[in-house]
Amino acid sequence: MTVTHASSPAASTSGESHERLIGVVHVGLGPIGRQVLAFLAGRGSYRSIGAVDIDPQLIGRTLNQVTDGANGDAVVVGSVGELPAAGPGAVAIHCAGSSLEKVAGTFAELMRAGYHVVSTCEELSDPRSTQGELAAQLDRVAAENGVVLLGTGVNPGYSMDYLPVVLAASQRAVHGVAVHRVQDAGLRRLPLQRKVGAGLTVEEFGERVAQGTIRHVGLPESARLVDRALGLGCTEFTETIDPVIAQARVPLGDSAVDTGHVLGIDQLVVARRNGVEVIRLHLQMAVGLPDPRDVITIDGDPGLETVIRGLHGDSATAAVVVNSLGRVRVAPPGLRTADEIPASPLNF
Amino acid sequence: MTVTHASSPAASTSGESHERLIGVVHVGLGPIGRQVLAFLAGRGSYRSIGAVDIDPQLIGRTLNQVTDGANGDAVVVGSVGELPAAGPGAVAIHCAGSSLEKVAGTFAELMRAGYHVVSTCEELSDPRSTQGELAAQLDRVAAENGVVLLGTGVNPGYSMDYLPVVLAASQRAVHGVAVHRVQDAGLRRLPLQRKVGAGLTVEEFGERVAQGTIRHVGLPESARLVDRALGLGCTEFTETIDPVIAQARVPLGDSAVDTGHVLGIDQLVVARRNGVEVIRLHLQMAVGLPDPRDVITIDGDPGLETVIRGLHGDSATAAVVVNSLGRVRVAPPGLRTADEIPASPLNF
Questions:
Q1: Coiled-coil annotation: which residues (chains A, B) (predicted)?
Q2: A239 touches B at CB < 8 Å
Q3: How many beta carbons lie within 10 A of that of residue A251, not counting itself?
Q4: Which domains does chain B have, with CATH numbers?
Q5: Do the chains contact at B8 and A235, CB–CB below 8 Å?
Q6: Would you say residue B106 has pLDDT above 60?
Q7: Measured between CA atoms, how close is B283 to chain A, in angstroms?
Q8: What are the φ and ψ backbone dihedral angles of B193, each rounded to 5 degrees?
Q9: CA nearest A174 in B: which residue?
């Protein structure tokens, strides 16, 4: 009853060859930048040829000294101008800042030096809709220098924007999109736990939200990317940030968060068309949240629900960045967004 | 405690304009071809300018007469040579046959006439690995004529190959991929129920499998696409086809499938590297299967599991085809595979 076809491997048909390794420079050696380094060390096609950081304790050290010894002897410098010349197809991986306005000059300098730029800058994920003039300038610099500029990461760049767009391709029509992302901040790095306000009082949390220091950057950008890619025509985008409050004492590292204190953020972006809700992006990042997951619901014809378990923030951001490198190098020059570039590794 | 940012819609920043509608011709007006027509009728950017079918009852009729009246007055012709001239960016949607060898001539004729070609031909989904010489010829014809040739659909083309590759982008490393797709053939069109052998005796099923008339075409292609895109280095691909047998009488339309008879197929492709299983694509299409779903498991670092409910075969195939059109028109000319072209609608 069983028919078996066995077959030998196909002859190599890939257009890729390994005549040379692609040079990579690293701008920003914080937690994500170091994860990117670690991930790249396991890939055969790339070689880290330089790095920049502002930390005086890192400048002058080799990447091997900064990491666990698998990234070579390139020396960390203090400015982009000191980086080595970009060889053909060289890429700069930028993990240093969320504000596009603050890092745009660095992007331009890297692109003029001949580097493609892939950045985790959240505001770069859909800059055309939020910072049009700056986006147009960066697009021009990229095109003039024949390189690609891409903002990506797991969120924004993948879980709450790219994946819903990819899943919408199975639909005859899309009426709305909802994404609910739940992350247990207790499993994440300490800076993130601070960023989401873990351990604060509700009053302190409110002050920091008002100051703008507690906020996941990029959620409105994700909503705009989904809106634009799917042609949903939203006319109003609203963002709210509330605390997740401990109902009982919750352990955190060597300490704990007391009852009534803050565990993290509950952030919501709703996009409406003529007053009707069309897109709902709901992000919860808090210590001790059960069942971390991403639920992507497409209200469409026929509609679809996807539940993903395993999209861990820091690790997935570094992975999405590294796995985009192959596609970035073959994309048309210019400012690109995640929906334009398949988040599919080229031979991994 | 709540901070609200409201914002007005961004100025239109899309590079797309609607100065003209894109012409589409339809080759094959079977169940899938007609669904594609129905889906396209709801989209503003395209216009159906011609159609080909071999059915004498269709030839000479207008598309409006063939469908429900929303596809215009183009007349169905009997051969590709009678189609109208392809305007700029025109696309031929081909839904007529699974065997690449049989339809390659039609593809070449369409491309020489200036059409991009998007086809549901299952063997076109990863032809380089299985039919290398023919694939190279078609690639040349596409490149010479400045058009794209793409094989896609929901399976192969999306659920068991493209989506796992997209999901793998979140991983530091991938060790293996498993996809389990469960489809209730009772909800599908009659030709599909026949194709999977619903109602046959186990003996009849075995005969038809041996003859090659019962088989979902494209599963090995999906495995090869995943292997290639993720660089998994598989060296052996094995396909088995078994019946799903009714344990009790199961209703089917006006009739039923008796106990002990066949409800459908259970098809499995396993790809191994040095004898070790790396890829497992398991497809069950049978009448009455409970909980239709796609489960995609990435064995990686850190690993991931995705459960999707709602990827219905016929409808999703037509949707994936229609939603690929925008991307096909901006992709580099040549033979392309689904992993190279984002399955993301361009403004839907």
A1: none
A2: yes
A3: 11
A4: 22-153+316-340 (3.40.50.720), 162-310 (3.30.360)
A5: yes
A6: yes
A7: 15
A8: -60, -40
A9: B348
